[in-house]
Specification:
Elements lengths: L1 H26 L6 H14 L5 H6 L3 E6 L2 E5 L15 E7 L2 E12 L17 E4 L8 E6 L36 E3 H4 L2
Antiparallel strand pairs: 1-2, 2-3, 3-4, 4-6, 5-6, 5-7
Length: 190
């Protein structure tokens, strides 16, 4: 009987490790510095309440339509020259049945604040700021952070191939991967 319990315990531990491997990859997918990981943890703590979209609405976020992967909520009162880890300007969801699932946050800094160079963001040079939001879009630097959904392209990549894109008719913009609007790290920021 004791052997059976030990085997059952070992089986449960193996299942736990096998089951959590994808989650570990999704939360620490990038080779980023300890300082960046600390800031990412801070952003997760600050935005965890937005898993319930009612909290986002209560905090001033309004739906603007489908951007990138799904419904996007923006707090226009936060759009300024300040990069604030605890207060992203936009929140990205995907639709799952009748529910919205939080997948990413987005930071936005108007071009007027830093017209020629991407703003300072997370520690290190792993963050990928997008220069503009497409033709006719707002004149902002934008930084997506996939805090709540793994992304094989990296936590700071603009697009996430794990998620379906918005239908073209609902999309606010259609960026291309080879666009010169993608900039990375301080050494290449224009």
């Amino acid at each position: 009987m004791k052997t059976f319990r030990v085997c059952l315990l070992l089986l449960a531990l193996c299942a736990l490790f096998i089951g959590t491997a994808p989650m570990i990859r999704s939360t620490f997918a990038d080779d980023v510095s300890a300082a960046t990981n600390k800031q990412l943890a801070q952003a997760r703590i600050a935005t965890a309440k937005y898993h319930d979209v009612a909290n986002a609405i209560a905090d001033g976020y309004v739906p603007i339509g489908c951007e990138d992967v799904g419904p996007t909520y923006v707090n226009f009162g936060l759009v300024d020259c300040t990069f604030d880890i605890d207060h992203p300007e936009a929140i990205h969801y995907v639709t799952g049945g009748d529910q919205l699932q939080l997948v990413a946050v987005e930071y936005a800094v108007p071009f007027a604040c830093t017209p020629d160079t991407a703003p300072a963001g997370f520690a290190g040079d792993a963050d990928v700021w997008l220069h503009g939001e497409g033709e006719g879009g707002p004149p902002v630097w934008a930084l997506n952070v996939w805090l709540w959904q793994g992304n094989p392209n990296g936590i700071f990549a603009h697009d996430n191939p794990n998620l379906p894109e918005c239908p073209a008719e609902a999309s606010l913009r259609v960026p291309t991967r080879d666009s010169d609007r993608f900039v990375t790290g301080p050494a290449t920021k224009k």
